[in-house]
Specification:
475 residues; alpha+beta; three-stranded antiparallel beta sheet; 40% helix
């Protein structure tokens, strides 16, 4: 980044992810996206006088699971506190969060380069409502449906030195949270958001500069652009002899620039104190073991297994672990038919093509039906082209592939003798093919195979045809 020559970028993140619970964290209101404004609210999540919160056990379990997936230490004693501020998206003028005794401490994420990004903590808190700014004349509308949604906040150490590292880290975080069924992380819905704390320091020095915070970035592209803009802005201020102001800035992705929102608050400005209505959490070893029993193999480990045990290339392993659904589907197929590379090819080339327009990944054929078709191809009962046709018919009808193959007369019924007769006929009728084969067999092999397939209605096995060509054309 030439525009910051002479400076090192120092970045720390605060990541918020909404947890996959049926209800909110401190009340029984539904936790759902897209409901009519202010319909999923109650006296508790809107902070009415006298309303008392109740703690959602499942939210605590998911927060613990998040901590375990990133190697955090799980605190046996954890306290909820009130973070006081008067913003219009929290009607009670405080947020229930954690400061002194968070649920998860430490942890790390390793980047592909081998660099380790340290986590400071993961704590559980509630989300605020949503503001919709109409215009200066009309004003701002407030939807409190999101208020009280359970959030985990992941706070990193200032270990990042580039936008690329930050984006890679966020992708790995989202990957873990989705695979463990902790959060959907739909960034376009605000299900995962990122605050970027960025400062510059003179190259080669250890003294950190003054940082700014950019709030609620909700796409990887926005994160990348915002970091690059802010680093350049601070470098220009410092190079011009100015001083960077510690502040919170708002990123405008349409304009590609940030603007100042307010002077950055310190922890003491929020006047944290223990919430008098929520008892401290005492987490037992049994609680942690119960959560561990729910956990699955994470994507990074699955990629290792797919390469080392199944012999798949890295590219295949990356595609197959791009979603938990695809990964689970692949593993179920392999448990039914131990041909990992063949199954991988069918999934990546044929199945994913079928659903490329779908918003949600859901294959239209069961693992059993797909592996039955693959086995028929491998046993040379049908060829790959017929196999794809059979797969499409299976999806359309819902019938078992073998039954359909018999009904449609797709199974190979062409004997070796019949193939040899066709090859002899071609050799006798087409002297050019016969002479070309003797000079450069590979060049005409496809034509010969095509001739046999055409004259058998596609029922001959292409592999078998290739085997028998030599016995006829070499003589």
């Amino acid at each position: 980044m030439s525009y910051i020559d002479g400076y090192d970028i120092v970045i720390g993140l605060e990541i918020h992810a909404e947890l996959k619970t049926k209800t909110k964290v401190f009340c029984s209101c539904k936790n759902e996206f897209g409901a009519q404004p202010n319909t999923n609210t109650c006296p508790v999540c809107t902070g009415m006088p006298g309303a008392l919160p109740i703690l959602n056990k499942r939210a605590v379990e998911l927060a613990i699971k998040a901590g375990l997936s990133f190697g955090c230490d799980i605190s046996r004693y954890s306290v909820f506190e009130r973070k006081n501020y008067f913003y219009p998206d929290l009607s009670k003028a405080y947020q229930i969060s954690q400061l002194v005794y968070p649920l998860c401490v430490g942890g790390k994420v390793e980047l592909d380069s081998g660099k380790t990004i340290r986590l400071n903590r993961i704590h559980l808190e509630e989300d605020a409502g949503k503001l919709t700014h109409i215009s200066k004349a009309v004003g701002t509308l407030v939807d409190y449906n999101r208020g009280g949604t359970p959030l985990i906040e992941m706070v990193t150490e200032p270990d990042f030195s580039s936008a690329e590292e930050v984006v890679e880290f966020l992708k790995k975080v989202r990957e873990n949270l989705v695979f463990e069924n902790i959060a959907n992380c739909y960034m376009e819905e605000g299900g995962m958001r990122c605050d970027v704390n960025l400062s510059l320091k003179k190259k080669g020095t250890s003294e950190l500069g003054i940082r700014t915070e950019m709030k609620n970035l909700n796409s990887f592209k926005s994160v990348q652009r915002a970091i690059e803009y802010e680093a350049k802005r601070q470098a220009e201020v410092l190079s011009g002899g100015g001083v960077v102001i510690q502040e919170t800035r708002k990123w405008n992705d349409d304009k590609g620039k940030s603007t100042s929102m307010r002077t950055k608050e310190q922890a003491q400005d929020y006047r944290y104190f223990p919430d008098p209505d929520i008892l401290a959490l005492n987490i037992s070893d049994e609680d942690i073991e119960r959560v561990k029993d729910e956990m699955v193999m994470l994507p990074a480990k699955r990629r290792e297994v797919y390469q080392e045990e199944y012999g798949l290339p890295l590219y295949d392993a990356q595609i197959l672990t791009s979603s938990k659904y695809i990964s689970d589907y692949f593993e179920k197929c392999v448990s039914l038919l131990n041909l990992p590379k063949k199954i991988s090819n069918w999934i990546m080339v044929d199945l994913l093509k079928l659903i490329k327009e779908q918003e949600d990944i859901l294959f239209p054929i069961s693992e059993k039906a797909l592996t039955d078709i693959i086995k028929m191809v491998e046993d040379k009962l049908i060829n790959k082209t017929v196999g794809i046709k059979l797969m499409e018919k299976t999806i359309e009808s819902g019938e078992e592939p073998l039954k359909l193959a018999k009904e449609m007369n797709l199974l190979v019924t062409i004997s070796d003798e019949q193939i040899i007769e066709l090859l002899k006929k071609l050799k006798g009728e087409n002297e050019k093919v016969a002479s070309d084969y003797k000079v450069e067999p590979a060049r005409v092999e496809g034509f010969i195979v095509g001739y046999v397939m055409k004259n058998t209605g596609g029922k001959a096995n292409a592999g078998k045809v290739k085997e028998l060509i030599k016995s006829v054309f070499d003589n």
